[in-house]
Design a protein that fits this description.
The chain is an all-beta fold and about 50 residues long. Helices cover about 0% and strands about 15% of the residues. The protein has no helices and three strands. The protein has a three-stranded antiparallel beta sheet with strand order 2-1-3, with no helix packed on it. A hairpin with a 5-residue loop joins strand 1 and strand 2. It is globular and about 25 Å long. It starts with a strand and ends with a strand. The mean pLDDT is about 95.
C-alpha cells in the first residue's frame, strides 16, 4: 500500500501503521480513510496529502 505525506507538516500516513489515535486501524489504505479524517499533527484534511 502507498504512503502519503502531509504537505503542511510532513507527517507520513503509513497504511501498515494507520492512525489508531484517530480511529484508523492498521492496514487501512489512504483511499479508505473517511473524508472527515484530519492529520493527527496539524489538523488539515486529506486533500493536503500527496502520495510518496
Amino acid at each position: 500500500m502507498k504512503k502519503y505525506r502531509c504537505e503542511v507538516c510532513d507527517w507520513i500516513y503509513d497504511p501498515e501503521v494507520g492512525d489508531p489515535d484517530g480511529g484508523i486501524a492498521p492496514g487501512t489504505a489512504f483511499e479508505d480513510i473517511p473524508d472527515d479524517w484530519v492529520c493527527p499533527i496539524c489538523g488539515v484534511g486529506k486533500d493536503e496529502f500527496v502520495e510518496i
